[in-house]
Design goal:
Radius of gyration: 35 Å
Transmembrane segments: 47-66
Number of strands: 0
Shape: elongated
Organism: Streptomyces oryzae
Keywords: Membrane, Transmembrane, Transmembrane helix
Oligomer: single chain
Protein name: DUF3040 domain-containing protein
Helix content: 55-70%
Length: 84
């Protein structure tokens, strides 16, 4: 018997031995509730992340308009007053 055949035979033997366990009656309802809760959490997280990104972009825009970082800084030295 080759390796895949032996594995298949072992799985079949295990499946035939196993007794059927009772499934809870409300299993589908609980799974549906868990899935809905997971989707709701993901939606809230996605919304919060987008709000954070937009707030960061807004803060960057306000900062760039108030500070004017692209203009040349004023000179730090003054011209001589007395003329040589």
């Amino acid at each position: 018997m080759s390796l895949p055949d032996r594995k298949e035979a072992e799985v079949r033997r295990l499946l035939e031995q196993r007794t059927a366990e009772p499934v809870p009656a409300d299993l589908a309802e609980r799974a549906l509730a868990d899935g809905a809760r997971l989707l709701r959490r993901r939606r809230v997280l996605r919304t919060a992340l987008w709000a954070g990104v937009l707030a960061g972009l807004l803060a960057l825009a306000v900062w760039s308009l108030t500070v004017d970082p692209w203009s040349e800084p004023p000179p730090t030295t003054t011209s001589p007053a007395g003329g040589w």
